[in-house]
Amino acid sequence: QLAESGGGLVQDGGSLRLTCVMSGRTDRIWNMGWFRQAPGRDREFVAAINWSGQAPFYSDSVKGRFTVSRTPNENTAFLQLDNLKPADTALYYCAATAKYRLRVQEEYTIWGQGTQVTVSS
Fold first, then answer.
1. Tens digits of per-residue pLDDT, 23-57?
2. E strands along the chain, which residues?
3. At 2, is the secondary structure helix, strand, or coil?
């Protein structure tokens, strides 16, 4: 019910724009978050934005380089990735929740399949 797109292979310092689109759950406007999982590591929080699009927030590792946004009144979210580094290489997931602890992945009830981002040095 969530589909991510926009991943790919870029060089160190490059940019990508990820898109997340929800289908089949239009009963409400959901809070949406982005997470990522690198090989051999746990999935970690990246960024989130609430249902109104206000007060987006980020993990310390991406703050200042990534920007989360959404289409008003729709369950579509974006993650702009700038100044990418090899350490950003991971499978990036979009997720949605009706709850408000947006850094906590256990709070999210709807997940996409992920889109791969690979940054070469």
1. 987 789 999 999 999 999 999 999 999 999 988 99
2. 2-5, 8-11, 16-22, 31-37, 44-49, 57-58, 66-70, 76-81, 90-97, 110-111, 115-120
3. strand
Q: How crowded is residue 30: how many other Cβ atoms within 10 Å of its Cβ?
A: 23
Q: In this structure, what are the phi and psi dihedrals at residue 86, rounded to the nearest 5 degrees?
A: -55, -30
Amino acid at 7: G
pLDDT in tens, 98-113: 999 999 999 999 999 9
Determine the Cα–Cα distance for residues 70 and 9; give it in Å rounded to an integer.
24
Residue 13 class from Cβ within 10 Å (0-12 exposed, 13-18 middle, 19+ buried)? exposed
* Side chain identity, residue 106: E
